[in-house]
Amino acid sequence: MSRFARFLSFLASLSLATTLWGAASAQAAPAHPGPAVPVCPGPVAQGYARCHSRVFPQASSSPTGLSPATIKSVYSFPTSQTAGAGKTIAIVDAYNDPNIESDLAVFSSQYGLPACTTANGCFKKVNQKGGTSYPRNNSGWALEISLDVEWAHAIAPGASILLVEASSNSFANLLAAEDYARAHAQYVSNSWGGSEFSGETAYDSHFSQNGVSFFVSSGDAGAPAEYPSASPNVISVGGTTLNFNGGSFSSETGWSGSGGGCSAYENATSAQVSFSQFGQVGCGVSRGTPDVSLDADPNSGVSVYDSVRYQGQKGWFTVGGTSASAPVWAARSAVAGALVDASYVYGNSITYRDITSGNNGFACLVGYDLVTGRGSWTGTTP
After folding, report:
1. Strand order of the sheet with strand 54-60?
2. CA within 20 to 30 Å of 250's CA: 69, 175, 205, 370, which one?
3. What is the mean pLDDT of the chain?
4. How does pLDDT run across 90-149, given as a tens digit for each residue?
């Protein structure tokens, strides 16, 4: 081979390597200037909740976080465009996102997902009473709504999405929205919470309905446990960090912000107490949170499109927090088509990736811990 031919061959291989590196590196969230910030800053007064998302507030004209294809690859989730068909996922959030349907359309188009619209019956938005007189707009909660709706659709593109908007972030209004959601969906996702309080057990009945699975984000500020994540009637969803090496997924560790701990007021379910490795965390018969986990660290955050200006920015954001892991768990459950309750989670129906490295004030352990619960759902079955 001549020197010139060798040079052309080198250029071709360099171009190919660059292309492959670019494709692989797109799987990992890029570096962002400054830290991620809470979308709904706290603390909040007792009786009120904040959303559990964190964002790098610099928006972009193109996606900057992880894509649905990457998340599905990392967890070996089903990739069918009809996954979740016949099921309804309800999203309960506070305030109004006036652009959610059009933003979902942009997200779906970007990632080759089927359209999910009011016209085709896939999407529906209501207020906490089921009507169409929506609450006032709120830019922070609009970003939260975009995250929840877009990623529920990403993981279960065949499922219907019901967005129920509470009049405010008070527990009274959010629980009224919960009541509507549980009567009209098989899976209900809640990406909000607040500090535990005496008397919280009186609210647990709002998270109970025959045939309905409830999911609640565990928080994004580490220990202690929060409510309604601590309710024994819900699946509390914690957070992990996805680690990449050279653009390829390498490992999953516990996220330092994952909410978790032993409840101060709630008792554990019999399924949790009897799980062989629950006793090692020292909760006794008290409720331990979280039950399970998935990616939530904003440094391995997901892509979200939001055209409601947040801190003056609109477009594509990289978002994390257990607000991301909760709707993904709800959607994955819809794909499975199962009633996902404590017995299901602590049984043998789910294949878990046990997360044994990382801490949120508590350490990740083998089997069960107060950072990631049993771990992350992996696999295409059930």
Report:
1. 37-38, 54-60, 313-320, 302-310
2. 370
3. 92
4. 999 999 999 999 999 999 999 999 999 999 999 999 999 999 999 999 999 999 999 999
What is the 3 state secondary structure string of the chain? CCHHHHHHHHHHHHHHHHHHHHHHHCCCCCCCCCCCEECCCCCCCCCECEECCEEEEEEECCCCCECHHHHHHHHCCCCCCCCCCCCEEEEEEECECCCHHHHHHHHHHHCCCCCCCCCCCCEEEEECCCCCCCCCECHHHHHHHHHHHHHHHHHCCCCEEEEEEECCCEHHHHHHHHHHHHCCCCEEEECEEEECCCCHHHHHHHHCCCCCEEEEECCCCCCCCEECCCCCCCEEEEEEEEEEECCEEEEEEECCCCCCEEEEEEECCHHHHHCCCHHHHCCCCEEEECCEEEECCHHHCEEEEEEEEECCEEEEEEEECHHHHHHHHHHHHHHHCCCCCHHHHCCCCCCEECCCCCECCCECCCCCECCCECCEECCCCC
Angle at 356 between CA 351 and CA 359, to 5 degrees: 125
**Residue 259 and residue 35: Cα distance in Å, rounded?**
19
Q: Is the pLDDT of residue 1 over 60?
A: no
Cα–Cα dist 290/370, whole Å? 6
In the chain, % of residues over pLDDT 90: 88
Q: Measure the CA–CA gap between 121 and 267, rounded to whole angstroms.
A: 40
Q: Average of pLDDT values for 1-17?
A: 40
Compute the distance between CA of residue 39 and CA of residue 321 in angstroms, rounded to an integer.
Answer: 9
- Of how many residues is the chain composed? 382
Structure tokens at 175: 């629980």
* Residue with tokens 């049984």, as numbered in its chain: 347
Q: By mean pLDDT, which of 15-24, 34-43, 89-98, 180-189 is the weakest?
A: 15-24
Q: What is the pLDDT of residue 45?
A: 86
Neighbours of 90 (CB within 10 A): 28
